Amino acid sequence: MNASSRAITIIGAGLAGSLLAILLSRKGWDVTVYERRGDPRVNGYESGRSINLALAERGRHALRQADAEDAVMARAVMMRGRMVHFAGGGEQLQRYGRDDSEVIWSIHRADLNITLLDLAESAGAKIHFYRRLHTVDFPAGYARFIDDRDDSPHDIRFDTLIGADGAGSALRAAMNRASPLGERGEFLGHSYKELEIPPGADGRFQIEANALHIWPRGDYMCIALPNDAGTFTVTLFLPNEGPTSFANVRSGAEARALFERDFADALPLIPHLERDWEHHPPGLLGTLYLDRWHLGDRAVLLGDAAHAMVPFHGQGMNCAFEDCVALAAQLEARDNLASAFAAFEAERKPNAAAIQAMALENYTEMRDRVDDADFLLQRQLEQVLQQRHPDRFVPHYTMVTFMRIPYAVALERSQIQRELLQQATRGHADLAQIDLDALARTVHERLPPLQVP
Ligand code: FAD
Ligand code: E0Q
Hints:
By secondary structure, the chain is an alpha/beta fold.
């Protein structure tokens, strides 16, 4: 598409909005971005969202397209695997991949966002802060923004709007009013709370730095991701109702009692438990499904605005970044906006649905299964099958995290593989009892070769 004549207005300068602004500005589009919050480089970062995030191959690849990878990776902390802290004490590192070439990276949300904002501006994008999208007149091409500092309205004219304004998207609400999008939200019924592990007296990490720590406890769990300053951000995921829930753990003192009982090895590492608890409101979790992501040539949604998901696969940002690359490519390839938006939606919607489903499944797996004997046997068998059939049997986690095959393909193959693993391990306690030759025949029948890069 001929970009020189066209202007694009992006709503939201979060993770997806700022990355997309870089990609489109570099391709010659005239990009303007409107962001509800203040400039984080001036006022500090008001987020209320998770402080750090796991970056995987899909996200890294997208950052590479924007020449942002080196700057981001310079401050990233490697996570080789999950460090599982068992209820009875003791811990175990479950590697994510085959070696240190297959790892994920903990990055700081604010640093990442600032890096992307800087690059977007140097690529020519204009970013306006304190501009919260309020209402849109699509036929006339007018949008109204509010400056929340003084409630003043600001009206602009637009050609087309791209909604990167997150799970509570105001653009989505406006589009839905103009023409229903078939929106359906499903709350998980569990929420989260963030706490901090400061560095030790020597300024260093108090627990293994190069891991994603996880305390699985059946119906709930804690995780911790490292930050480059020697701290960890701990996230407690808990049901909203029930015996151990946000309904019953209301005060900092009650939170301390919960940690004494269930997370005893973590408790001494969190000195400001009560303060953190009382200052951070619990965050809601859910999945958002839409039938349509675009409105003709007037508007399109991406990232959380289009497909918010639960965070248990660590893929929300990675998926949002993949969306940005896909939308930029369709805008180049098609000769008009409406067909670019339609092609983007057709390409990405099945894949977003697949990672949404896998993220939900991973919650049960993380909180309830990673410390089970049958789970561990299945992981062992998975490794053996990967070695024997490297082009056919690729572990679920590898397909999602270290590869860029479509999420929908990863989901389909994972379902077949899980069935094979469950059938082969049923009633067995040891790998030696499993007939690998019989299994090889099933693998060849059911899993065609996958192009492994
Ligand atoms: P956001 O990052 O939410 O950005 C939206 C932007 O729009 C914000 O800047 C906001 O201020 C702005 N905005 C909102 N409304 C308006 C408006 N009306 N007008 C103008 N601007 C507006 N993903 C991973 O890949 N790895 C992880 O490890 C991971 N961990 C997570 C842990 C938790 C607890 C949670 C909740 C999420 C996690 N995610 C993770 C998901 C990730 O945070 C999101 O998928 C990602 O932030 C989506 O990016 P986005 O740009 O679509 O939305
Ligand atoms: C990852 C990395 C919030 C969060 C982020 C994550 C992961 C998990 C559990 C959670 C999944 C995993 N995982 O370890 O399988 O890989 O990002 Cl809870």
